[in-house]
From TrEMBL:
Domain of life: Bacteria
UniProt cross-references to InterPro entries, sorted A to Z: NTF2-like_dom_sf (IPR032710)
Protein's recorded name: Nuclear transport factor 2 family protein
Gene3D superfamilies per the UniProt record, alphabetical: 3.10.450.50
Length: 257
């Protein structure tokens, strides 16, 4: 029975921990574009990244995996050169992986103000028939609120009585989000998204890839939303600072969808 692209990705990521060589065959050796700026381009760059890990040091636990057309996106707990939470996106052609993007953040030492970690919560999608509508709604939310700052519209997007937040600094409920943004503003710390690069979804889970400012740093934002009845009810994210171009190990850029 043919494996799904989702299964192939989960096996490939686990191989970082186990050292299994079979899943490497899921990558097209002649066409592999790398957007992790710490890794060299191509199939050889992926191999070099694996070789740089001390033997038996890596741990990989993929918590969520979703599929949208030729794309698979995952939410994973990593431990290589320290514990991290990551989102990965893989693009397939003819059953083989030809492109990869990711975003990584150091795992916090404690839960957020409401007791949530960066990965806990529901892991499987529902309402697959509503995928496109959910993607449209979430894109509009990010565009209205995070790109254009239309805060008067924020309440209309949320399940106000049951909004669960996994960002390490922000408590649950819409009031928790508003309070945190207000406190940051008082400290002169701005959160401003500049551009949406990609929106992927499976059912009631939608991932948005964006770039923008958080304080003095310029970042890639990967935001995963879970919806219920047409409202945002849960949020996970990973924020990674985009390094200076002179340190990049490939020239593909962080985005390029």
């Amino acid at each position: 029975m043919e494996k799904s692209n989702k299964d192939k990705v989960v096996e490939l990521l686990k191989a970082i921990e186990t050292g299994a060589t079979e899943p490497i065959a899921y990558i097209n050796p002649n066409k592999y574009t790398q957007h992790n700026l710490s890794a060299a381009d191509g199939f050889a760059g992926f191999g070099a990244l694996l070789k740089a890990l001390p033997p038996n040091s890596a741990k990989v636990k993929t918590v969520r995996a979703f599929e949208d057309g030729n794309y698979v996106f995952t939410h994973t707990e990593y431990d290589f050169f320290g514990p991290k939470i990551g989102f990965d996106i893989f693009r397939f052609e003819d059953g083989l992986i030809v492109e990869h993007w990711d975003n990584l953040q150091e795992t916090p030492k404690q839960a957020n103000p409401s007791g949530h970690t960066m990965v806990d919560g529901p892991t499987t999608s529902t309402d697959v028939a509503k995928t496109e509508g959910n993607k449209k709604l979430v894109r509009q939310f990010v565009d209205d609120i995070l790109v254009n700052g239309k805060m008067d519209k924020i309440a209309g997007y949320f399940n106000r009585d049951n909004y669960i937040q996994h960002n390490p600094q922000i408590p649950d409920q819409l009031s928790g989000l508003g309070k945190t943004l207000g406190e940051l503003a008082k400290q002169g710390i701005t959160l401003k998204y500049d551009k949406i690069h990609q929106v992927l979804g499976e059912g009631n889970f939608v991932l948005v890839v964006s770039e923008g400012n958080f304080g003095s740093s310029y970042n890639a934002f990967y935001d995963l939303f879970r919806l219920e009845n047409g409202k945002i009810t849960e949020h996970w994210d990973v924020i990674e600072q985009i390094p200076a171009k002179e340190s990049w190990k490939n020239n593909n850029g962080k985005f390029g969808f």
